[in-house]
Amino acid sequence: xxxxxxxxxxxxxxxxxxxxxxxxxxxxxxxxxxxxxxxxxxxxxxxxxxxxxxxxxxxxxxxxxxxxxxxxxxxxxxxxxxxxxxxxxxxxxxxxxxxxxxxxxxxxxxxxxxxxxxxxxxxxxxxxxxxxxxxxxxxxxxxxxxxxxxxxxxxxxxxxxxxxxxxxxxxxxxxxxxxxxxxxxxxxxxxxxxxxxxxxxxxxxxxxxxxxxxxxxxxxxxxxxxxxxxxxxxxxxxxxxxxxxxxxxxxxxxxxxxxxxxxxxxxxxxxxxxxxxxxxxxxxxxxxxxxxxxxxxxxxxxxxxxxxxxxxxxxxxxxxxxxxxxxxxxxxxxxxxxxxxxxxxxxxxxxxx
Length: 353
Hints:
There is one protein chain. The chain is mostly helical. The chain is built from 14 helices and two strands. A two-stranded antiparallel sheet has the order 1-2. Helix 3 packs across helix 9 (218-226) and helix 4 runs antiparallel to helix 12 (297-311). Mean pLDDT is 85; it is low at 5-14 and 347-353.
């Protein structure tokens, strides 16, 4: 009896330590993700070039840990590899479109637009896995889309950021919002395929990230080759003195400096390799509702604190309302309100005589 009790206590302690580690790593990953958009802007590389450099640096950083994982628990199976590659192909489109959105509507708003994935993920699960969609989804989805359009600055041209009103003959807020929405859609597809890849492996975390990161290079290379006038540009950036030039279609940004390369290294190592791996580690070990709630800290921190301090990106009133609508929709769709209400009722009941 005593031996059994000791063994149970040891197991409980091990689970507690494992959960504590998962929380710590998840929060580190979320903090890194909150700085990702600002790091893209600070590195100031052309968007497709930025995506290629980010993924390449991240891949090199992950490889030693992937080899170690293979020796420790075995190689990822064939299905896991294929799903990871598929996930990475869509995340590559996400990164490329998102980089453009960051320069067009700002790092904070671009982080909010990415949350469109909460509409895409349930839809894919319903179409391919026959998972039931709650009735609230059909109410939340149009509200979410409205919030995304509002936060992108489509209705009022955005906040106080400097730069041109149009680019390639299109309103820059509209173009940036479209890029952000494409990013959000592809992010949703990535999350769906990544989740399926996690279900078919044997607990590997780093290997799926390596395969996905390698596949992320495909989209920016194709875009750079066929759709960009700049090509693979390591000499000049996008911004001039921290702002878009008035004719960004033809004007090169500031020359790339050593400091730009420092921020790119930070983006590739911390914002790519560490952030995504740590978030993946926490996501597969903790309650999904808790993870969804904690992940909200990333875009909130970016739009409400980091982008304002670093770049003076002050959203307009309509954009702020859009941000609130988007974050509220994300919270509701992930049942965060249910947990808050349950805790509130419990405290209320405890306080009754």
